[in-house]
Design goal:
about 250 residues, alpha+beta, OB fold (Dihydrolipoamide Acetyltransferase, E2P), de novo design (two linked rop proteins), 2 domains, 5-stranded mixed barrel, 3-stranded antiparallel sheet, 7 helices, 8 strands, about 35% helix
């Protein structure tokens, strides 16, 4: 058995002195693991980092074996954001979510492409990338079959004035319909309404906290509740760093 493809590095676990079991995300083969010999040598040490894209060749005697990986450099994204602790935390969060949420060797081509676009955004000198991270988390939920219905109000069917999400049904609720029950509903950030990844200008910084709570609730409930350790710690570290950095700012640039 053999395949060759571009892949995003999600994680690696040391195996022996210089080798590692590497978890990759590929377009055609999903999340795929393999043994990379020499992973901690000088040639590959800076290549096999979460978030980097590599050119990988996987070989195994049979399809159900772990197999071996031959790795060649392709796109070293982490080098562009290594000096930005928050962007690096976001990248590590995304990799940890993918590594923990996806079944091995289950194809998710759209998710692979969306993750590449998100990582490219993290590498650019823009200020709206945090919104794209939470929009990506909504996409991850949808890809796994737990998408939120944010198109119209679950109570009255209206498409305007949406302000909340039901934590049980994952459907949007308008301000009018949800006001009497606001303490039992999740706030719906404005930048997640409509086209995903297109944030509204000058939205309140509190929207980021609301987005983190919203996607975190459904990730924990539907994806990680039955998995050891729950939602990955890397996601919590990213959210903590992000919100701590914006608590003194009422409005994002």
């Amino acid at each position: 058995m053999e395949w060759t493809a571009d892949a995003i590095v999600l994680s690696l676990r040391r195996h022996g002195e210089t080798s590692a079991v590497v978890s990759l995300l590929t377009e055609a083969h999903g999340r795929h693991m393999g043994l990379a010999r020499g992973a901690f040598t000088k040639r590959l040490r800076g290549v096999l980092m979460p978030g980097n894209t590599v050119h990988a060749t996987w070989r195994a005697r049979t399809e159900d074996h772990l197999g071996s990986l031959k790795i060649e450099p392709s796109q070293a994204r982490t080098g562009f954001i290594m000096d930005d602790a928050l962007r690096l935390a976001a990248l590590n969060s995304v990799c940890a979510l993918l590594d923990g949420a996806l079944m091995e060797r289950e194809e998710h081509p759209a998710l692979f492409r969306a993750t590449g676009v998100l990582f490219d955004a993290l590498s650019e000198a823009t200020d709206d990338w945090p919104e794209a991270v939470f929009a990506w988390e909504l996409g991850l939920l949808a890809e796994l079959g737990f998408g939120l219905d944010l198109a119209k109000c679950a109570g009255n069917g209206r498409t305007d004035g949406l302000a909340f999400v039901s934590p049980k049904s994952a459907r949007a609720v308008s301000q009018e319909a949800g006001a009497p029950y606001s303490d039992r509903l999740l706030p719906l950030p404005r930048f997640l309404i409509g086209d995903r990844g297109r944030p509204a200008a000058n939205h309140p910084a509190s929207d980021l906290a609301d987005a983190a709570e919203l996607t975190g609730h459904f990730l924990e409930r539907h994806v990680f509740a039955q998995r050891n350790g729950g939602i990955p710690a890397a996601r919590g570290r990213f959210v903590e760093m992000l919100l701590r950095g914006h608590t003194t700012s009422g409005v994002l640039p």
